[in-house]
Specification:
Distance between the termini: 84 Å
Shape: globular
Number of strands: 4
Largest sheet: 2 strands, antiparallel
Radius of gyration: 26 Å
Strand content: under 5%
Low-confidence stretches: 1-32
């Protein structure tokens, strides 16, 4: 059945204050990866999304959906239905996974066409297969189908697995799909491989059964995190976009820092941080924020490649910034068995350090080239922005309240979304029309379906390592190879994370390394939470590092320059994203582990160290001047950079220095470098006056 494209289900790009360039391209992430929806497809999307939302609400509230705010009466709706976990996850997948075949075409050439008959057939087959699992959920559990499924159940599992792989290919591309297929099929030949890959082999039927019916594969940790926590935050993020949150964040950033030196670039940093911390999507963040900030940067004197690099780096780091971060953080909470609020709190200081270093680098670059900020006439007034965007403050207050005070991390985003939509519809300026509301529902379904397909696929990585026993043996082998040296293990982990980040999503990369690499790093004496955050950080590096650098490819058409040129600048600007993980994994005080004094001193010295190093990387020291392009000038820069790193990451466990000696060495190097710079500049000034 072919449909003529009728209605597009995708969020409008909310551009910032008066657009610096009215001709900025109207790019949307949905148009880059999926087809427009016809009326029938749109109706299916909306129905599936509403059912999935209701199903999630019912499960999270245990059959009694309650709306309890700090003020007002408590509202309850009882369904009397409580599902076992496996049946719930199967039902969630049954309504969401088929949407992938409706929205995501088999090849890029078919993107703008309506949904063809064969995709409707695949969607129906997916729905039927996974619905069968939901129907048989109790028998699967009681009969241990994971190890002894009936023949017909094995056949259905095989069909479902192939459909999951195809759905993942459509949403993630060939590279990630090939990796998942190879690892998922590894149990078939595990016993025939040499060490360290030798493991327990399984037949094809047993492998398929464990992937589909087991609790450690497709429907294991990633999908459980999706069903328990992620759904609500995705809905909140899409709702924020459709109610004008993107425009509010851009306007707020312009009003706050637009007039600063290099203000247009600082706006890009701040607005991307605000938007990305909620959306959790690097590419979406680059496009939705970049259409405003990149042209503004270019117009105020920034080179096109530098402007694109600023936006790419700022958007990448935003996924590591609380309160929401990306979906990977929720999977991390499940792996560690800790509340999400603890993960978000631990990520706060590293996130602030990352953005502080980026702000300093941008300011140093602007100072070196004499670039100014935007004029007052071009910028919105802060009072006006807050009067028009106050509707976005109560939802965030509700979100933080339920995360921190009530400890309801799964329900918190639903409360916040309810408040957001309620306030939004009351205020005429932001009120959504009925067509826009329908698009909002469909866009939510698109986001949920895409992530469900990815998580169902990469869950097979966990399943393969679990059923072969490789996870434990490989961890021991890595510890043996590294000799238990933490730094060597960290470097191995960083390089491995970077390589896997090229072919996987951040979540897939994290899951793989959380199984393989996190155990040996923890055995080496490193803090488990710091280790998992370290892996997550380095999984993000490929977004800005050539040759993959997906964030730079998203920024290239907006900046109108080569993605590789943007990648070179992004690598320089993203220095903090390479260094900050080493800082907090070697000094857990930066993730708020330890006594108050140690935490305070560590944060203070890390700020001083990173600020000094960031300025030196861009060739400018605030309050002193530009580093000369001479041998003494480069010596001064290297002294400050090395000293800054000693301050940011006290390395007493690696060099045998005490905490005080390490800080003294770092401070001495920074002061020596800055004094040398001051002397060089003074000598230069005296030479010119003479």
């Amino acid at each position: 059945m072919n449909e003529a494209p009728a209605v597009k289900a995708g969020p409008a790009v909310h551009a910032g204050p008066p657009r610096p360039e009215q001709g900025a391209p109207e790019l949307m992430p949905e148009e880059l990866a999926s087809r427009r929806l016809g009326r029938v497809s749109l109706a299916v999307f909306c129905a599936a999304t509403l059912f999935a939302t209701a199903l999630t609400l019912n499960q999270l509230w245990g059959g009694v959906i309650a709306l309890k705010l700090p003020w007002g009466p408590k509202l309850e709706l009882s369904t009397g239905i409580v599902l076992i976990e496996s049946r719930y996850l199967y039902l969630l997948a049954a309504v969401l996974l088929p949407l992938v075949f409706i929205a995501f075409p088999a090849s890029p050439r078919a993107r703008l066409r309506g949904t063809p008959w064969y995709d409707w057939l695949l969607a129906a087959a997916t729905f039927a297969a996974v619905l069968y699992f939901a129907y048989e959920a109790r028998r699967i559990l009681d009969g241990s189908w994971e190890t002894g499924a009936p023949r017909n159940a094995v056949i259905v599992a095989g069909i479902a697995w192939l459909l999951i792989i195809e759905a993942m290919r459509r949403t993630s591309g060939w590279a990630m799909t090939i990796i998942v297929v190879v690892v998922a099929a590894y149990p078939l030949v595990a016993a025939d491989l040499p060490n360290p890959l030798n493991g327990i082999s399984h037949s094809l039927g047993d492998t398929l059964s464990r992937h589909i019916y087991g609790g450690e594969s497709s429907f294991g940790i990633p999908m459980k995190a999706f069903g328990e926590i992620v759904v609500g935050f995705i809905i909140f993020g899409v709702a924020l976009n459709y109610t004008g949150g993107g425009k509010f964040f851009n306007d707020l950033a312009f009003a706050l820092v637009g007039r600063m030196r290099g203000g247009a670039a600082q706006v890009g940093v701040i607005s991307s941080m605000l938007q990305g911390s909620i959306s959790g999507s690097v590419i979406s963040n680059v496009i939705s924020s970049g259409v405003v900030t990149i042209p503004a940067m270019k117009r105020t004197g920034f080179r096109a490649d530098y402007a694109g690099g600023v936006e790419a780096v700022a958007s990448t780091g935003a996924v590591l910034m609380p309160p929401v971060m990306g979906s990977t953080a929720f999977v991390m909470a499940s792996f560690l068995g800790r509340p999400y609020a603890e993960i978000a709190l631990a990520a706060l200081i590293p996130g602030i350090l990352f953005y502080l270093a980026l702000v300093v680098q941008v300011d140093a670059y602007a100072a070196r080239l004499g670039l100014k900020g935007l004029s007052r006439a071009e910028l919105p007034r802060l009072g006006t922005v807050m009067r028009e965007g106050w509707v976005f403050i109560p939802p965030f207050a509700v979100l933080v309240y339920f995360l921190t005070e009530e400890k309801l991390e799964a329900q918190a985003p639903f409360y916040a979304t309810a408040v957001l939509l309620l306030v939004n519809q009351i205020v005429p300026r932001h009120r959504m029309s009925w067509p826009t509301f329908v698009e909002f529902i469909a866009a939510t379904g698109r986001a949920l379906a895409e992530l469900a397909a990815i998580l169902l696929g990469i869950g097979c990585i966990i399943g393969a390592f679990s059923m072969t026993g490789l996870a434990g043996t490989l961890a021991n082998d890595l510890v043996y190879i590294a000799g238990g040296a933490p730094l060597l293990l960290l470097v191995m982990g960083a390089l491995t994370s970077f390589v896997f980040g090229m072919g996987m999503t951040v979540t897939a990369c994290y899951i793989f390394l959380a199984i393989v690499l996190a155990p040996p790093l923890t055995k080496a004496g490193l803090d488990p939470l710091a280790v998992h955050l370290f892996i997550m950080y380095w999984g993000m590096v490929s977004f800005i590092t050539p040759p993959v650098a997906l964030a730079t490819f998203a920024a290239a058409p907006i900046a109108k320059t080569s993605a590789m040129k943007i990648g070179v600048q992004a690598t320089k600007l993203g220095t903090a994203i390479y260094l900050v993980p080493f800082c907090f994994v070697l000094n857990p005080a930066l993730i708020l582990k330890g006594d108050t004094v140690t935490i305070a001193v560590s944060i203070a010295t890390a700020i001083v160290g990173l600020v000094a190093a960031a300025g030196a990387l861009q060739g400018y020291a605030a309050g002193i001047g530009q580093y000369p392009a001479s041998v003494p000038g480069w010596v001064a820069r290297m002294l400050v950079i090395v000293g800054g790193l000693f301050l940011a990451a006290p390395t007493e466990r690696l060099l045998g220095l005490s905490f005080a000696a390490d800080l003294g060495l770092g401070a001495g190097l920074v002061i020596l470098g800055l004094c040398l710079l001051y002397a060089l500049l003074r000598q230069s000034d005296q030479g010119r006056t003479a």
